Predict the structure.
Amino acid sequence: MYRIGKEEVKEIEKVIKSKQLFRVGDPKQGHLGECDRFEKEWAEKIGTRYALLMSGGTSALICGLVGLDIGPGDEVLIPSYTFMATATSVLMVGAIPVVVEVDQTCTIDPSDIEKKITKNTKCIIPVHMVGLPCNMEKITKIAKRYNLKVLEDCCQAVGGSFKGRRLGSWGDAGAYSFNYFKIISCGEGGALVTDDRTIYERASIFHDSGTAFRPYAGEFSIPVFVGLQFRANEIMGAMMRVQLKRLDGILRDLRKNKRRLMEELKDNIKGINFAPSNDIEGDCGVMITFRFDDGVVAQKFASLVGGYRPIDSAKHVWFDWKPVVEKRIWHKPSLNPYNFPENKDLRMSFTKEMYPESIENLSKTVFVSVSPEWKAKDIKEKVKIIKKGWEEAHKNGN
Ligand SMILES: Cc1ncc(COP(=O)(O)O)c(C=O)c1O
């Protein structure tokens, strides 16, 4: 979270004073309809027909997969670099995640997607990590060619875009996280967007534990089925409406500071190299991404400047998704998708050695975080630290 203030307090106070904290209620009785309003505003911001606010990004991914009708017997392509929740969401619907390489942008490599597709592949989850947009043009083209669904994981890139279109609106559905560490937040929360009525209905039903408390959402055209309870409450809705008003300002300042720092670094450090971007304009600007020829130099640089190599970010790289790698799913072997007869012919193995391109790219990249609050003097200070770190890291023959 970057910004929070008295505006959030004021709106939350109104909800508490209304005494109507459940998301469904009667406006005549003073119900404010904050979740409902946020969903309309979020759909409009992203450019989709529907949005659904809920408990988190993981639940949004799960609901997205349910909406897309993914389940046992299906393989879902996910990148080697993503938070473990992308993989666990696939397993929660009984499908099997298949890992794909990331390229120099640290996002899913479209050319490796093609290599990994089999007759069992049903869906691709491109993940826009640390605000960096995937190449959605190439990915959606491949998906169309092979008749695959696309669920965008925008949890770390809320509000970002690719070629002028907001992330989340390129795929069949998009998932966002509003947890504490994200660009806008209500502590914990998430949302799903889609243009497709069936995806929306399935996701709505599933996230509402099969009770379907949602008369305002219109009549469902499919029968209600049992799901889980991922509903948002009115405090979340009220807070997210204020956070949404802050979003474009946060992105503007992040991008401005990232651009300024990159320009200053180019002027001050000979040979400085940044990782390529699929769309620098749409990038959220939360990280400067440095690219090195040597992973050891990258590691040294990271430790000197307060950055990190993505390969070292535990639970965000495929070999570190411990319970997934060790295939400990649910609490009973019979509920574990790796034991399902429907999945017996699917690819279940993903060792560290299987992804050399990812090891190379994630080891030779360093992320340094950007703040939207930096002023000119902070940027000067950063340049000094990074210049010193760059020179130190390249000493001793490296
Ligand atoms: C890429 C990615 N996907 C999914 C999630 C899950 O979001 P949440 O923690 O809101 O469930 C996160 C959260 O950090 C994430 O970074």
About this structure: Residues 319 and 351 are 7 Å apart (CA to CA).
